[in-house]
Structures are given as structure tokens and as C-alpha cells.
Amino acid sequence: MSAPPISGYPPLPRQTEIWQLWGKLRQEEPQLAGNLAGFVAKMTSCLQEAQAEKEALELTLRKRDSDHHREVQQLYEEMEQQIHQEKQQLQAESDSRGLALTSQMQDVLEAKELEVQQLAEGQRELEAQLSHLRSTHQEAASENQQLREAKRDLAGRLEEVRGQLQVTKGRLDTVRGRVSWQMEEKLRQVAALPGLGVPGAGEKAPDPQDVSREESPLPGLFGDNDDWDQLLSSFGSPPHGALQLCWSPPPSPRATPGPQTPRVVRQISISEPHALLFDQKSSSDPDRVPRTPPGVPFSAKDSKEMDSDEQDDRVPRTPPGVTFSIKDSKGMDPDEQDVSAEQPVEPRDQDPSQEPESRPEGRLLWGLPGLPAVESGSQVAATFKVLIPLEDGLPPHSNSPPPQAPAGSSKQIQASDSDDKGPGSWGPPSRAQPGAEAGPQEPTQATHTMTEQETQPGPSPTTALEGVGPAKPPRQREALQQDLHATGSEPGLGFQRARALTLGPAEPFQGLASVGLVPTKRLEQGQADPAVQEGLPEGLREAHGWVLGLGELPSLPHQGLEEEPRAEEGEQVDQGGQDLGSEQSVEAHSLETANLEHPQQDSLLISLPSATPQAQVDAEAPAPGKPAPPPVGAQPGAGPQEPTQTPPTVAEQEAQPRPSLMTTHTEQSPPHSREPRVESMLEDPGTDSREAGLIPPPGDPMAGRPQANPDYLFHVIFLGDSNVGKTSFLHLLHQNSFATGLTATVGVDFRVKTLLVDNKCFVLQLWDTAGQERYHSMTRQLLRKADGVVLMYDVTSQESFVHVRYWLDCLQDAGADGVAIFLLGNKMDCEEERQVPTEAGQQLAQASLQAGMQASHVTLKAVKCLWSGFLDTLASRGEGTVPGTTAHTEMGLPRH
Ligand SMILES: Nc1nc2c(ncn2[C@@H]2O[C@H](COP(=O)(O)OP(=O)(O)OP(=O)(O)O)[C@@H](O)[C@H]2O)c(=O)[nH]1
């Protein structure tokens, strides 16, 4: 028996083997077969149940699948519907937009069409105008043609008139001969009368007029002019006498009725010798007929027969009121009368350059009835000459200056002349030139010279400038500057001379001039020359001059330094009890050399440790453009650098070596370059360099120590952004001149200023810091030693003013709360570019005061108060410091 296959299930693999096992089991263990059948049945039922569950599950699955399909279908339909709606919406929007665009386009199109229509109308109008113009042109052409014909007609009539004139001339001769014959006849008859051998004086000669009336047909010949009677009445005058006749032609028949035109008065001059206005010419040579310009009296011969129409035709050719000079020029060609206006006459003895023109003004001179008769050509020429000066044109010699020109015009001429003159011709030419120029032009010269003096300094007393001359034109001043530098064998000498020029006789502050200058910022070529200050605004110059004037302080002129040798010998305290002694800028390195060998500076020089090799290298190899420092121990100012002609104090001060200690410059920066050329060799002013003896540290007793012990030593640090003018300000303090072409400070720079006040020696070490950010760390270190700070900003730079806060923070960080701070707004001369109002500076100063710092807002003009405030405060408090100690001193507000 074989086991029934499990329904619904495929036979298991190796089923035959199972069946074999089953058969074997039934044979060997028949009792177990029943259990297995039951098991199989049970399993079958379980499988059937599982099958049913499976089917149920499949049903459920199918149902859910259909539901899902349905949902998806529904969603799909909804989405489709939504998309459709959106599509319709977009379509509607685009349709509406298109409609709007279409309408807009339609409007634009209509407007354009309108424009086109207007243009077309305009074109039509233009065409109509063009055709009208064409017709007008044709009319004008026909009129021209008619005029030409009329001209020809007139020419024919003119020929007729000429013929008539010839006839008239012949008849005139006949009449004249007849009149003379009749007169002789009458005389003979009178002489033949009995009782009258000689004609008495009381007898009258026969009236020629009567004779002419009786026998002469002249009135008829001369037409209807009523004034011919006068002519005839004068006909009996001697032949050489000139006959004048004034007559007026009848009104022109072409004249339009209206205001009465002035009567044309013609002066007819008949002179017997036929002295013509112009060359005598044969009538057969019309080409040589002189031409008469419009308005010029033309000569007509025997124009008596000219009919009124003919003369009326000529009237418009001359201005109304012009008198014609009609001469009895028998030898003249009648064409002379037909002189056209376009053919000017050149009188014989007339200057061609004075060719007269037809001007209305001319009629005032031409042939006024009261004028004497023109008897000769020379008189006519004289009339010409009279006319010419009234012409508007300038006389040909007007370009040349008048002998005595008025001062105003002379000034201009003088100025232009001076520009054109060469360098050698400049100067006071009026004094050198005798004659008229020197006389009336002298005031102008004086004014001009004053102007020059305003823009350039006075003459230098130095020999180097003697040949230059006191007044150089601006162009030459540049050359002068170059000369100044070229004259010296090296830049230092040129600088010294220029400096000497600066400190001329008018120099009010010579005694306070500095001894040396730290060459951290070198002067560019000519910058020390006073001419350099020409580019400076006037206000700035004034400000600087005012600053350094120290007028209110008892200044110590020249003898201040001259007395210093005595001070060096222990007599410094006795320097006359001057309130303010001298100020000097000494570079640290120079202090060593400036000792007893150079007594003028000894009292103010500060001892330093011996120059290091580096310093010696600096001294031996100065940078180009920098005055070469003399060897250590050598007397400054000796050698070729010493300007022998400059005043000793100034020259030696300028000749002081200026080796760089704080910074080293190896090349000259171009003017106005704000980039340092050489990096500072000083990384930390209080460390290595100081140890090397190059840098006197703030508070170092040896640094800045003068030969005589100072009573007070203070460190004043100039702070502020780059380009605010710190170095310029310092230079101004020392050099009494504004330096241009300064390069940006590298590292830190310092100068020493020594002031003697009330027999107290104040030594101020002025530290010029670099405003550039890369040097701020160095500056911060310096701030710890500060006694006073001049915090500067540029009134034309808001940024520099904003950064004042930063510098105040730096001061606080450095623990400099007790430091006196002077807030200084610079560049006040640039008022137009001002960005920081004065009130803002004052407010900031007050705010700083509230913050515990003393600050005051000072202007450049009030800088002298800075020094006086410094010194007064220090002296009154007695808080000075002996060299070697450090003391912070509080300073009061400067007195304004
Ligand atoms: N108009 C005008 N210009 C000035 C004045 N002071 C300085 N300057 C100009 O400002 C520029 C900067 O001057 P510096 O003295 O070199 O400025 P600084 O603050 O020392 O700059 P740092 O080198 O960064 O320290 C220069 O071109 C000067 O000519 C002033 O009072 N008026």
C-alpha cells in the first residue's frame, strides 16, 4: 500500500525514498503505521487550514490592492484635475497679459502712426515750402534778369548823358568865351564913351549874370535844377577861383512816400587848373580810372547835365548827407562818376593801411557845406586823413605800447612781458631802463614786485644766492631751488643754503632754530627752500608762522645760541634770565659729537653712549640726499659741508650730522610718497637697539641728556593716524618751515627740544611715532614711558578722528592714565575739505577728561600754548624729573 499523496502539495523530493521507508516501517513496525497515518492526517488538516488562511489573506491582499489602486486612481484624477485647473488659470493669466500687451502695443503703434502722420505732414509742408522757395527763387532770378536789363538800359542812358555832358561842356566853353567877349566889348564901349577915358572906380562892371541870362541857354541846358542860377551868378569869377555850388536833387521818383529822406547835398567844386583828385587820365583809358570807395566823395566832371533820374540812381550809393566833390575835371574820364561802391579808391598819398571804409560816422566829415572848397588833390587827401582816425579799426601802431600807458594796462603788459623775458632779464627793468618806461610804469613795477615778494621770500643774505637776484619769476624759483642744491657739493649743503634763505633777515626765530634733525623723514629736494612753501596754502603758512613766532614768549634771538658756549662752560644758568631759551632738535647720535668741540651746541646736546659700529656705518655712508654725518669726534659743519657764508648758528645747526638711529633710510623717497622706503631697524625701541646704544629709551638717563643737567626731562609722544601731520608738525617746531615731500615715518623717531624758562632747563624728548598700523605695537610700548601725549588727528579725515578713540584706549592699556593729552586737530587750513567739526574735537576732549584723562583740544594756531602750558605747568608744580628718573607729569589745559 502506498501512502496517499498529500493533496495540494507537490510530492516532496526523494518521495520514493520516503515511500520505501514507509513500506519498510509497515513491515517492521506495523504498530507505528497507525500513528503515522494519524499524524499525516493531522498534518494534512493543518495544511488545509493554512491553505485557507492563505487564501483569506490573498483575498484581503487583493482587496487592499484594489483599494490602493482606487485611491491612487482617485489621487491621480484629482491631480489631473488640479493641473488642469492651474493650466486653465495660467492660460487665462497669459491671455489677459497678452491682451494687455496687445493693447499696449496697439497704443504704441497708434502713437507711432500718429507720429508718422505728423512727419508726413511736416514733410509735405517742407515740400510745399521748398516749392514755394523754388518759385521765389525763380522770381528772384527773373527779377535779377530784369535788373540786369535795367542796368544795361541805365548804362545806355549813361552813355547818352555822357554825350550830353560833352555837348554841355562845349556849350559852356562857348558861353564863357561869349561872356568874356561881351565883357570886353562892354569895357571897350565904356572906354569909348566921351568924357570917360578910364573907367571909374565907381562904375560897376556889367553883371555877368545878366549877360548870361540874356544870352546863355545854360538854365535850359542844365535842366530844371533851380540852383544853377547861383552857378551862373558866379560864373564870372576868375577862372582860377574855385566855384562851389550846393544843390539838392529833386526827390527820387522811385522814392517811396513816407518820411522825408534827408536832402542830399552835393558840393560841386569847379577849379580851373583841373587839379584833380586823382590821376589825370585820358578818357580813353577807363581801366585806370580811380575807384571811389562807398562814402568817399567822388569827383565828377561837368555833371551838370546829368539828369535828376540819373543822379537819383546814384543817391543810394552814398550815405545820406554825404557831400560829393564834383570838380571841373576836364581831363577826367566821365566814367569816374560811375564809380561803384565795390571799387574803393586808394588816394595817392594815403597809407594803404588806412584805407577808408564806408561808415556812417564818415558822413560827419565828408564835405560839410561849410567846409572850404577842395582845390587840390592834397586837400582831398587831407579829408581822407581826417576820416581815418574816426574809423573803428585800431591804428596800425596800436600794438606798440603807448609812450605813457596807464598803470592798469601797463601792469598787464608788464606781467606778460615779464613772463616772456628770460631769467636774466627779470628783475627791476624799470629802474634799469631810462626814459618813459621807467617813469610812468614804476608804480606798476612796484606793485608787481610786491606781488612777487608776497609769493616768495626775501632775498637771501647768503653769498650762494647773491647772483640769483632778489626777485625771480615763479619759473625761475624752481631753477633757483635746483641751483641751491646743485651749488652745494652735496644735498646737505644745498639744504643749508636753502635754510639760510629761509632764515633771512626777516627770520624771527633764528635763535630758536634747531641744531639737528633726525633724518627719519628726509627733506626732498628743495623742500627746505622757502620757495617750497609756495605750494602751501596761505592760511597754512600763516598758521605755521604764527606757531613758530612765539611772539608772546620772550624769544631768544641769535644770542641764545651764541651764548650757549658760556652755558657749556657752566654759565648756562646765567643766560640772561630769558624766559624761553632756545629750542634744538638734536638727533641722539649727534649728541656725542656735539660736545666741547662744538661749543655752540654743547649746552643743549644730549650725551649718548658711544656710537656703535652701526652708527658709524651710518655716519660714514649716509643715505643719498642726506647730509653725511662727520666722523665721530669731527667737528660738525667742518669740511665741504660747511656753508661758509651762512650765519654760523644757522649753518652749523643745519650742518649737524643726522644719522639715523631710530630708523634707517637708504634711499630717498619721492615727494609725497606715503610708503616708507626702508623698514625700521628698530623692532623694539626698548630692547636690542637700545642696548646697542642706538636708541635712547624713554626715561633713559643718558638719552637726550644735555651737557648741562636739565632741570626737567619729559617725554612727549606724538600719536595719531598716519598722514595726520605729526612729522610735519615736529618739523615745523624745529625748522620754522613747513616740510613737504615727507615720507611716512618708519618705526619711531625722536627729537630733543631744550627750552630755558626762568633759568630752568626743560628738555623735551619729542617722539614721533609712525601712524601706520604695522608699527602700532612699537608705539604701544613707547606709551608706557610717556609724560605727555600730543594726540593728533586730521580735520579733513573723519577716520583719523574716529581712531582717536583707539589711541586713547592704547593709552589706557599702557597705564598712561595720568598722562597729559593734548588733542590736536591738524590741517585746519584745508577748511573746504574739513570733515571733523571743531565742536566734535572739543566734545571728545571733554569726554576724555571725564574718562579721567586730561586732554584739551588745541589747534595748530594755538600750538604755542601747548609749549607754554607744558612748561608753566611743569615749572609751577615742580614735578620735573631729573635725568635718570621717570616721572609722569600732569599738565593743565593750555591757555588759549
Ligand atoms: N594742508 C596741510 N597739510 C599738512 C599739514 N600738516 C601735514 N600736512 C601734510 O600731510 C601729509 C602727512 O604729513 P606727515 O607729517 O608725514 O604725517 P604723519 O602723521 O607723520 O604720518 P606718519 O608718517 O604715518 O607718521 C604730508 O603730505 C604733509 O605735507 C597741515 O597743517 N596742512
Automatic annotation (TrEMBL):
**Which PROSITE patterns does this UniProt record tie to the protein?**
RAB, RAS
What are the Low complexity biased-composition ranges?
Answer: 634-654
Keywords attached to this Swiss-Prot or TrEMBL record, sorted alphabetically, are:
Coiled coil, GTP-binding, Nucleotide-binding
Compositional bias ranges of the Polar residues kind: 442-463, 601-615, 661-671
Keyword DNA-binding included in the entry's annotation: no
The source's domain of life comes to Eukaryota
Task: Please list the residue ranges that the record marks as compositionally biased, kind Basic and acidic residues.
Answer: 204-216, 345-362, 560-569
Compositional bias ranges of the Pro residues kind: 248-260, 624-633
Q: Does the keyword Nucleotide-binding apply?
A: yes
Q: Which residues form a coiled coil?
A: 40-164
| Full protein name | Ras- protein Rab-44
